[in-house]
Write a structure and sequence with these properties.
Layout lengths: L14 E3 L2 E2 H24 L6 H26 L7 H17 L1 E2 L6 E2 L3 H25 L4 H20 L19 H5 L8 H19 L1 H11 L1 H6 L4 H27 L10 H11 L11 H20 L4 H49 L1
Helix pairs in contact: 1-12, 2-7, 2-10, 2-11, 2-12, 3-4, 3-5, 3-10, 4-5, 4-10, 7-8, 11-12
Pfam family, one: BPD_transp_2
GO molecular function: transmembrane transporter activity
Organism: Naumannella halotolerans
């Protein structure tokens, strides 16, 4: 008995190393090349660029953006978008700060001061709640993700300003010994083994996200919905439930960043998290994901986040004006999207040519058989 083996006829889908295909090499390889070029250019321009202190600063900042980007990856994979993540970061930071400051108990003169782990848990749950509301409105009412999350951006930012009431929360984050809520800054702004806590959190979330996308039915459902939602629905994929959960995951990641950020800057501020949604989308796209859904990886998203982080830091190091920094960053994002679209057009044309050639070959074979 012979065993037949099948290989993909599409060169872009042939495996070249482990699970890596030519298509993945093209989409993610360009981001890695861009990262290498950025590092080399700024290292030549400034001797302070690759110092240990600056690399630690970059890693810490990249970790914040990458965590939000990983949540955004789940949303984009199913063909959605989440513009509210930046405001969710600010809201969770404001919630945590207010819990450290104390919450008035209704109808009494008592003030509730939760323990440290309760503060962190509630803050992260608030982020997940924002995501759950987004997902519910999008999946159950069939509202456009862009509109829903844009509206939630304003809602969350407004609630942040209401909670802070124009005042930053700073000293209260240290907690009080007698209440058992101290250690927040030491834990979440610390650097165990010389690595920032934000980086440790990113490593953990990266591992979990990779396993979820590669090894679980949820990951397969996510890719199938992004590729063809109608077909996924007809094949029994719980489309509505998956949609809700991807926004919950996005809110969870934003909540974690909110907690880590206020510890990092030792303050809860009203502008915390601004533009995080744009950096997250940029990281996902630069990493090779398709905004239409169905394509993207954790590995590519992390590389994309490092591209944005190293570029932004390098522009600061060499003294580029903040205004031009935005121009350059925006140009890089546009270029990444344009390259991705060009690549997809080329792939579609190649597929069409192969289909035509295959049809002609089959037609000639049938004609020869008929003779």
């Amino acid at each position: 008995m012979s065993t037949a083996t099948t290989t993909s006829t599409d060169p872009a889908q042939r495996r070249i190393f482990g699970n890596l295909t030519w298509n993945q090499l093209l989409t993610e390889g360009r981001a890695f090349i861009a990262l290498a070029i950025i590092v080399i250019v700024f290292a030549v321009m400034s001797e302070n660029y690759l110092t240990v202190g600056n690399l630690t600063t970059i890693t810490k900042q990249v970790a914040f953006n990458a965590l939000v980007a990983l949540g955004m990856l789940f949303v984009i994979l199913h063909g959605g978008i989440d513009l509210s993540v930046g405001s969710t970061v600010g809201l969770t930071g404001a919630v945590a700060g207010n819990l450290f400051r104390g919450v008035d108990v209704p109808f009494t003169e008592l003030i509730m001061l939760p323990k440290l782990w309760v503060v962190v848990l509630i803050a992260v749950l608030v982020g997940m709640l924002v995501g759950w509301v987004n997902g519910l409105l999008i999946s159950r009412l069939n509202l456009a993700p862009f509109i829903v999350t844009l509206g939630m951006l304003y809602v969350a930012r407004g609630l942040t300003q209401v909670l802070l009431d124009g005042q930053n929360i700073t000293n209260e984050l240290r907690g009080q010994e007698g209440l058992g809520n101290t250690g927040f800054l030491q834990i979440f702004a610390g650097s165990p083994l010389g690595i920032p806590m934000s980086a440790w959190t990113l490593i953990l979330v990266t591992i979990i996200a990779s396993l979820v996308l590669a090894k679980t039915p949820f990951g397969r459902w996510l890719y199938s919905i992004g590729s063809n939602e109608r077909a996924a629905d007809l094949s029994g994929v719980p489309v509505k439930r998956v949609k809700v959960w991807v926004y919950v995951i996005s809110g969870l990641c934003a909540g974690l960043v909110g907690v880590l950020q206020i510890a990092n800057i030792s303050s809860s501020t009203a502008d915390l998290g601004q533009f995080y949604e744009l950096n997250a989308i940029a990281a996902v796209v630069i990493g090779g994901a398709a905004l239409s859904g169905g394509r993207g990886t954790v590995r590519g998203t992390i590389i994309g986040a490092f591209v944005i982080g190293f570029l932004a830091n390098g522009l600061v190091i060499v003294g580029v004006s903040p205004f031009w920094q935005q121009v350059i960053t925006g140009a890089v994002i546009i270029l990444a999207v344009a390259v991705d679209q060009i690549q997809q057009i080329i792939q579609r044309r190649r597929s069409a040519r192969r289909a035509v050639a295959s049809a002609k070959k089959e037609s000639l074979a049938r004609a020869a058989a008929a003779e």
